[in-house]
Design goal:
By secondary structure, the protein is of the alpha+beta class. It is built from eleven helices and nine strands.
């Protein structure tokens, strides 16, 4: 079964690359930087190999119009949509003029933890601006259009048709069915780890794991990835009397929360973080606004970080 799964992955990836390479005839009137954007589009193709991303250049909009073909899955019929690349925002035509309202979906995800000891004045200024009430309330949001189709999650009712029960490290979990396979591989890899004192303590103090919850990101207009069922929180008992989430620390220390030393933040064992990353999950502990309990399924970001490193 494992060999068949690997073979299927490579065949789908190869066919998808052929689509990307042959879908667009080389047109010298298209600027070179636009052709370079197709390399970024290939990252999404690698991340979601069962989905076809077929670009055609729209000279009026001066952007790639991408046909996204999503195969049928269980009760969901095959779908085809068209979205503009828009520097990885994947926007419908009617939202192009509002592109500044949306973040890019592709960015250089850093796997190292930013240490506040090394923050410059400019770093601190950016963090303060990013976490200000005004920016969190009215700032750019994550564009929902591509993932709405991939995960069939435009509404709560639609999303919950795809939420399934599973377990992680012995704890019950409700997740989107699309991440069941990578999450099962995470579980198997964790089970195969040798039991060190650190891991033994981690397992014994793990109280619960949370995933699906229909909500927005706190104090923002962005929809939480928990509401898709692709974000997972790992919660230890008492957090080892350490800090686990920047927002809670900001309530306690509003003037200097961002300088919280790494030594007083709870962190999962590195082996656990690495296993999640090996299956496409980024970890919230690497963000300047850290969320150390939090993992999200974003294989495109991990692939991108490997490609640019």
């Amino acid at each position: 079964m494992q060999l068949r799964r690997i073979a299927r992955f490579f065949i789908l990836t190869l066919l998808s690359f052929i689509f990307l390479q042959t879908a667009v005839a080389k047109d010298k009137s298209i600027p070179q930087e636009k052709w370079q954007q197709l390399e970024e589009l290939k990252i999404f193709q690698k991340a979601y190999p069962d989905i076809k991303f077929i670009p055609a250049y729209d000279k009026k909009k001066e952007d790639w119009l991408v046909r996204v073909i999503i195969p049928a899955h269980k009760e969901t019929k095959k779908k085809e949509i068209q979205l503009y690349w828009c520097e990885s925002r994947f926007l419908p035509e009617e939202q192009l003029e509002n592109k500044s309202n949306y973040r890019k979906m592709l960015y250089n995800y850093q796997r190292s933890i930013p240490d506040p000891k090394n923050f410059t004045e400019e770093d601190i200024k950016e963090i303060k601006e990013f976490t200000s009430k005004e920016n969190r309330k009215n700032g750019a949001i994550d564009p929902p259009f591509l993932f709405n189709e991939i995960y069939d999650c435009k509404t709560q009712k639609a999303t919950e048709q795809h939420i399934v029960k599973t377990t992680l490290m012995g704890k019950p979990l409700n997740v989107h069915e699309r991440i069941i396979e990578p999450l099962n591989r995470v579980s198997k890899k964790i089970q195969s780890l040798p039991e060190t004192p650190e891991l033994k303590k981690f397992y014994s103090t793990l109280t619960r794991t949370d995933c699906y919850a229909w909500r927005t990101v706190r104090d923002t207009q962005s929809r939480s990835f928990h509401s898709i069922g692709v974000a997972i929180d790992i919660l230890p008992k008492g957090y080892y009397q350490k800090v686990i989430y920047w927002g809670w620390q900001k309530q306690l220390r509003p003037d200097d929360w961002y300088m919280t030393p790494l030594s007083v933040r709870w962190t999962p064992p590195q082996e656990i973080i690495d296993i999640f990353a090996s299956e496409g999950f980024i970890w919230g502990g690497t963000w300047a606004v850290w969320d150390n309990m939090h993992f999200e399924y974003h294989p495109e970001l991990l692939i991108n970080s490997q490609d640019v490193s």
